[in-house]
């Protein structure tokens, strides 16, 4: 699961964060984490990893139990709060700073798309 395109009740389609454990949409970024297990080769510039998005607490605990059963113990688990990860995504995709020209244009286009449904 993770980041998916979702069709919403208002007719819009957009990106949504989906918990990899329970399958529910994350509607508050403060209540979710991004979790990944980097390969044993170490962290090198340019390495990419497949992250899991989990609801904090119960779903995160279930993922940790699954990781233990797979031989990927908690000591190999990396995590970042979803709200922080989303800021990194904005930064890495060139939309920062938040009040900058690119961000304002993206917001204008998103508002326009939402208004035509």
Lay out the secondary structure.
Layout (H helix, E strand, L loop, with lengths): L1 E6 L5 E6 L13 E5 L15 E4 L2 H12 L8 E4 H11 L8 H15 L2
Antiparallel strand pairs: 1-2, 3-4, 3-5
* % residues in beta strands: 15-25%
For the termini, the CA-CA separation is 26 Å
Helix content: 25-40%
Q: Give start-end ranges of low-pLDDT stretches.
A: none
Tell me the overall shape. Answer: globular
Number of helices: 3
Beta-strand segment tally: 5
How does the major sheet shape up? 3 strands, antiparallel
| Strand order in the largest sheet | 4-3-5
Radius of gyration using CA atoms only? 17 Å
- Indicate the mean pLDDT: 85
- SSE run: EEEEHEHH
Q: Structural class of the helices, strands and pairings? A: alpha+beta
Number of domains: 1
């Amino acid at each position: 699961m993770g980041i998916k395109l979702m069709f919403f009740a208002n007719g819009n389609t957009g990106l949504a964060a989906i918990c990899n454990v329970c399958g529910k949409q994350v509607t508050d970024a403060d209540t979710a984490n991004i979790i990944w297990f980097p390969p044993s080769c170490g962290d090198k510039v340019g390495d990419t990893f497949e992250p899991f998005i989990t609801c904090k607490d119960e779903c995160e605990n279930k993922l940790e139990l699954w990781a233990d059963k797979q031989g990927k113990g908690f000591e190999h688990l990396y995590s970042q709060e979803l709200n922080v990860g989303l800021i990194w995504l904005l930064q890495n995709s060139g939309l920062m700073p938040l009040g900058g020209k690119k961000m304002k244009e993206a917001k204008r286009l998103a508002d326009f798309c939402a208004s035509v449904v």
